[in-house]
Amino acid sequence: MKKKISFLITHYNRFENLDFCIKAIQNANVPFDYEIVISDDGSEKEIQEKIKDLNVDQISISLKNEGLAHNINKGMRACNGDFIFYCQDDFYINYESNFRNVLEEA
Questions:
Q1: What is the residue-level pLDDT of the chain in tens, covering all 106 positions?
Q2: Rounded Cα–Cα distance for residues 81 and 2 (Å)
Q3: CB of 6 within 8 A of CB of 106?
Q4: Can you tell me the distance from the alpha carbon of 75 to that of 30, in angstroms, rounded to the nearest whole number?
């Protein structure tokens, strides 16, 4: 049975970083089934509207900032993968680097 990875990205008011992180995942040619899940922790309304237009699988938005731990837990509940790879919005995935080996081993 083929396993699915959930890339959980927590976010708060840094849309440019988030957009860059998502594109890095999408352009990495990951040879696994995956989904991208965004968990936003009460960003400004204008940023939340931009997030809704992103090409991702799941978006979980809080109306107010409730802290990182809450944001991670909320995001994990939105994930449907067999495995969860957690990162913050300023994480850049370079699949051809050591990340490929780490992901395949995991």
A1: 678 999 999 999 999 999 999 998 888 877 789 999 999 999 999 999 999 999 999 999 999 999 999 999 999 999 999 999 999 988 877 666 666 667 777 6
A2: 11
A3: no
A4: 21
User: Contact, 27 vs 57, CB < 8 A?
Assistant: no
Token code pair at residue 25: 């995942």
Q: How many CA atoms lie within 13 A of 26 on its CB side?
A: 12
Structure tokens, 89: 């919005």
Determine the Cα–Cα distance for residues 14 and 49; give it in Å rounded to an integer. Answer: 13
What is the reported pTM?
0.89
